[in-house]
Amino acid sequence: MKRLINFYSEKKDLRLIFDSGSKETEIVLFEFLKIFSEIKNSNFTLNILQKKTTDLYNRIDKFTESHKNDSKNFFKLRAFIKNLEENEWFYIMPFSIPNLDKTIEIKTSLEFLNQGYAIEDIDEMINERNNKFNELFCSVLENYKIISFLSDKKIFIGESDKRKRKCRFCNRTMEEEASFKNIAHSIPESLGNKKIINYEECDECNDKFGKKIEVNLIQWLDIFRVFWGVKGKRKIPKIKFKNGNSLSYENGYPTIKYVIDSETKVESEPTEIIFNPFDNINYNNVYRSLCKITIGIIDLKLLKFFEKTIKWINNEIILHEGDELPKVAHLIIPTKYFDQPEITLYIRKNEDTKLPFVVSELKIFSFVFVFIIPFCTKDKQKFIIKEEYDYFWALFKHYHSFNNWSFQDLSIDEEKERLIKLNFKKRV
Length: 428
Description:
Elements (H helix, E strand, L loop, with lengths): L1 E8 L3 E7 L3 H12 L2 E4 L2 E4 L2 E3 L2 H13 L6 H10 L6 E5 L6 H15 L7 H22 E6 L5 E3 L38 E3 L4 H10 L1 H14 L11 E2 L5 E5 L2 E5 L14 E4 L5 E2 H15 L9 H7 L14 E5 L5 E11 L9 E8 L1 E6 L13 H10 L10 E3 L6 E2 L3 E4 L5
Parallel strand pairs: 8-9
Antiparallel strand pairs: 1-2, 1-6, 3-4, 5-6, 7-16, 10-11, 11-12, 13-21, 14-20, 15-18, 15-19, 16-17, 17-18
């Protein structure tokens, strides 16, 4: 017989499964649950809503040491509680949350409790939040299935058995001389992704994309990797620019080395610095890289609608002057930082071809990118005409609460020189 105990915090969850086939195990579980129970007149009532305190952690720690030979689950719980903030709220439940709505309700209640709101006010606040949620997401949910790949645990995409794998990008198997020896990260590892792994990207395609396609996305975001101290495969990059300028991460801070011409008269500290990188960028390859992430994680059954997209990602389709792609929406949230990249797919579940079949949202560093996957045979429009794009964007109301979106044209399929401008003016 299996016994299930779930722990839910605002950001992370823990699922513990115990084999309870013996009386001794039942006694240990009973003693364990007593830690989270209220005792009155020899009666025990499990309090499913808990708050981390030093006293609670010490009791869990003591119990874990006393029963370290009984179950490894207790060590997992101790680590889970240890990683919570002091006075952070969490739930303990001897059952699973039944549906998404209940999950959202529980996570929302924890969010409000951790912000200091009273328990008795939570229900009303959740109702207000739900009403706001429905107002923003109702149209999206009616038209799209939403699939999120979050960063709280490792995610492996595709077939685990190498002998049965087929590369999503070249359709080769091991029998057709494809190899799957290396780890293929769905989002480039250089951008901080350690969690989302693609089993169905062969070594040859992985190497090709890394050298020819994804390098453009990485270079586009390199300066921000330095500012936020993001390690790639080995270390935080040091960027050298023309004229001897450089940007590095030293002693926990980004460090700018700016060379001033000997003939330039300096009367005060510069308020603006313009860097000229050595490497040019193909912005169409940036778009290819974004779409390659989506193709690498989307349901295999849908790949048949993206055969032309995959050819474009493989550089078998080159855009010429006058060819256009949908614009890529780009947002900076200065107050938010994502420790690991996160991606969400919106997959259309009806035949309303005024809407794109697949829309992706990538959260990375303090950025949010929203982009349409082009060349899909389920789409009847290209979404390059303003009216077509605006119709799609109007449906995604949850993005409208931010007014600093930029919409970038990444259609140019050739290398371009770029300038990086840093503004040091103080904000009033």
